[in-house]
Amino acid sequence: MFFKRGKGDVFYYTSSLLSEHGIAHGFFTRHGGVSSGDFSSLNVSTARKDKSGNCDAPLNVYRNYVIALSCLETTPERAVGAKQVHGDVVLCVESGDGGKGTNPILPEMCGCDGLFLDETTTGVDALCVKTADCVPILLSSKDGKQVSAVHAGWRGTVLDIVTKAAEKFDCPKEDILCAVGPCIGVCCYEVGEEVYEAVKSLFSYKGMENLTDSMFRNVCTCSACSKKKANLSEINKALLIAFGIPEENIDVSGICTVCHEKEFFSHRKSGGFSGTFVSAIRRQIRN
Ligand SMILES: [Zn+2]
Question: Could you list the residue range(s) of the whole structural domain that residue 99 is in?
Answer without folding.
Answer: 2-184+245-282
